[in-house]
Amino acid sequence: MSVLTTNETTAKRSSPQQRRPMKTPYPTWFHIPAAILYIVLFAIPTFASFYFSLTRWTLFDVHFIGLDNFVQFFQERQLVQGFIDTFIYAVVTSGSKVVLGFALGMLLTGPIIGRGYLRSVIFFPVLVSTIGVGLTFSVLLDPFNGVVNQVLATIGIQGPGWLTDPKMALLTVAAIDIWKGLGIATLIYIAGIVAIPQEYYEAAKVDGASSWELFRNITLPLARPATVTVVILSLIGGLRSFDLIWATTGGGPGFSSDVIASVIYKQYQAGFYGLSTAGNVVLFLVVAAIVVPLNIFLNRKGAAE
Amino acid sequence: MTHPHPMRTAVVAILAGSALALTGCAGPASNSPNASAAPVEITYMTWSDATATAQATKLIAAFQAENPNIKVTVDANPGGADGDNLVKTRLATGEMSDVFQYNSGSLLQALNPTSTLLDLSGESWAANVDDNFKASVTSGKGMYGAPTGTVQAGGIIYSKKIYDKLGLKVPTTWAEFMDNNKAIKAAGITPVFQAYGDSWTSQLIVLADYANVASSDPAWASSYTANKRTFSTSPAFDSFQHLQDLHDAGYFNKDFASAKNDNAIKALADGTAAQYPMLTQVALPNLKQNFPAALNDFGIFPVPPTDAANEALTLWEPNALYIPKSTTGAKLDAAKKFVAFFNSDKGCALQNETEPGGPYAISSCKLPSTVAPMVTDVQTWVTKSKAGPALEFLSPVKGPNLASILVEVGSGITPAKTAAAAYDQDVKKQAQQLGLPGW
Questions:
Q1: Residue A191: which of A124, A295, A105, A112 has the closest Cα?
Q2: Are B223 and B305 spatial neighbours (Cβ–Cβ below 8 Å)?
Q3: Maximum CA pair distance of chain A?
């Protein structure tokens, strides 16, 4: 997140129209409280973590071992699986949130009955604690005693082990994540679609445009800022996702739904502090390497239009 | 608890550093001259499950009645890897509870006891402690723990009723065990229950096989610590293969992937499952609390070895009470009293109320005159001298991912050979973290 926000603000500041001289009516020392917070809580820990990632660290003593942690981290058997799972998870959740969020956004800005109520219903899952959602779903999706499979059984379908079948576990968690996070995506799309001036639609209708043409040539391109926001937010969320996976499967069965964050968490639990810090540095670099170029690309394309 | 982040880890580092500095300055400043008369409040950390909480409540009530000046409050430890993390972090930051209960053996070694815990070898009760237990709480020069509860055994808990009904004999080799399983399955009963919903339960077949390994190679543990033995080769590999054999033969309950330990105990009590690899101290209190009528229907035998000559029962030393070095002054005196109370006559009587899972590790506590048949089985093996401690009490090397790796074997996701090699890799990290020579 912090990567994103700093990037956006710097991008804005350096754009030619908005560049202003540094002169403000406030003295420089007004910045000090914020600067102290930033340095103590962000800058020092970040650089400390780069150092600790190069050590074997027991919290009691530190033993410098160079890049061994990174070598070890990339040899982890679960890690390859974890990387693949992380990308699948991020792409599936992000893509679904864009498509479903857009569809729901269109629906909930249209002239339908109970619009306010439906907007609330879509948004409610966002308000519930992730751990609570995870535990609830792990009860609902229990392969033998869960409500879902019992309902399926009454119509003669033998439901799968949603969270216990190694082939399904990750996708099931992704589906729960989509259910839970869709409200935010829809909200952003609603705001984006409502902000499109009505004059465009009126003018297009005068020219005889069909509903599809209105959607294709007005709504879709002009809701682009909303799409960019949803893609970036949900992709970062997906890449770093941890709590929902931990509450539903704990990375299991075995290691089949482990993502990078849960691999790191397990190493931290095991007391491999240096190794898990190295993992966090890797995760930081991976997220930055994906999101920064994507952000630049999407924003540049948006500005060009 | 939620998103691990590069920042988060480092914040912990900074906080840890400053907290250590703070505790360095604080020290015995609060030591007032009339400390003995003034009321003292100490904290006691124990596991937050129902059995442990009930036991702690009873013991604390009795202790406070005897020492009206001391008030004990409970800190909860969630258990599992989260609990380990909590204990390590609080010890490192000098904010540990005044007394805490924790595992003995390899998990204790990971706490770096020589620099974090108080040496208790000079306490009056220390002379009564059994040698095997003493070894499991000793590191370097000091002895750091007082036993809580009994020694327990890990093995195959079986229904004597079903064995009688089907005319089966207690097996002495793996082949005989598999024959029994075949007969049990033919009778429409689940031969072996597995509960991977609680993934730690997957480890029993492997961990409780260690006494067999030790009978065939008595130096296995020390060679293992020196990186001269692995789980990829016999005799230790056999148990990985055995777990796979059970899965391949379809001897598990159909909900093995989602079932929890409580389901396993229920299935045993209902008679829908015949055998469950488990620890006595886990199974007995649960049976007593939930199915008291079935308590006497169960016995235990060792995980059957490949060769009958090596058969031995694997024992787990009890958990222990520890006092961190951060406890000082009047609180330290109160903490020492509390630890001593645990194995006093009154403390022992209270411990006996929770169903004991085997003999005590301290001579001041005696088992009640009547015990569950499972405990009699354990005592038989101990008396025959065909019982030995689990690997975690003989070697500090234990990989953190064993439970997940064995869930994969038992679920048929990974073959035994690959899994054993993966575990050998997992162990290497732990050994390096502990700074052991030879890794």
A1: A105
A2: no
A3: 75
Q: What does pTM read for this prediction?
A: 0.81
Cα(B7)–Cα(B217) distance, rounded to whole angstroms? 47
How many CA atoms within 13 Å lie on the side-chain side of A95?
Answer: 7
Q: Tokens 């909303």 map to which residue?
A: A226
Interface membership of A283 toward B (CB under 8 Å) = yes
Residue A43 phi, psi (nearest 5): -65, -50
Residue count of chain A:
305
Count of other CB atoms within 10 angstroms of residue B31: 12
**Spatial CA neighbour of B170 closest among B54, B313, B61, B32:** B313
User: If pLDDT is split at 50, 70 and 90, which confidence band does A72 have?
Assistant: confident
Instruction: Give the mutation candidate from A53, A269, A287 for the B interface (greatest B CB count, under 10 A).
Output: A269
- pLDDT tens profile B141-175: 899 999 998 899 999 999 999 999 999 999 999 99
In 3D space, the residue among B263, A171, B219, B71 whose CA is nearest the CA of residue A161 turns out to be: A171
Contact (CB<8Å) B13/A72:
no
B16 domain residue, yes or no: no
For residue B69, being part of any structural domain is answered with yes
Kindly state whether B85 is in contact with chain A, defined as any CB-CB distance less than 8 angstroms.
Answer: yes
Q: Which residues in chain B touch residue A255, judged by CB atoms under 8 angstroms apart?
A: 404, 408
- C-alpha distances (whole Å) from A170 to each of A161, A175, A261 are 12, 9, 14
Q: Do B433 and A251 touch (CB under 8 A)?
A: no
Task: Based on the fold, state whether residues B145 and B193 are members of the same structural domain.
Answer: no
What gap in Å lies between CA A87 and CA A169, rounded to an integer?
15
**Helices B50-66 and B280-290 sit at what angle, rounded to 10 degrees?**
90
CATH topology of domain A54-304: MetI-like fold (1.10.3720)
Nearest CB neighbour to A77, from listed B3, B110, B425: B425
d(CA B99, CA A81): 41
CA A258 to chain centre: 16
Domain assignment of residue B408, given as a range:
152-316+375-434
Name the domain count of chain B: 2
Helix (H, G, I), strand (E, B) or coil at B396: coil
Question: What residue type is B298 in one-letter code?
Answer: F
pLDDT digits (tens, 9 = 90+) for B364-392: 898 888 889 999 999 999 888 899 999 99
Measured CA to CA, the distance from residue B242 to residue B178 in angstroms comes to 10
Q: Classify B385 as helix, strand or coil.
A: coil
DSSP SS3 for B174: helix
Instruction: Please give the Cα distance from B290 to A28 (Å, whole number).
Output: 69
Q: How far is CA B426 from CA A59, A168, A169, B423, in A?
A: 21, 26, 24, 5
Contact residues for A192 (Cβ-Cβ < 8 A; gap 6+): A105, A222, A223, A225, A226, A227
Half-sphere exposure of A262 (CA within 13 A, CB side): 30
Helical pair B50-66 and B329-342, crossing angle rounded to 10 deg: 110
Query: What's the DSSP call for residue B317?
Result: P
Q: Which residue in A has a C-alpha nearest to residue B17's C-alpha?
A: A59
Q: What is the mean pLDDT of chain B?
A: 87
Peptide bond into A253 cis (omega under 30): yes
CATH of the domain at B420: 3.40.190.10
Say if CB A248 and CB A175 are below 8 A apart. Answer: no
Say how many residues make up chain B.
439
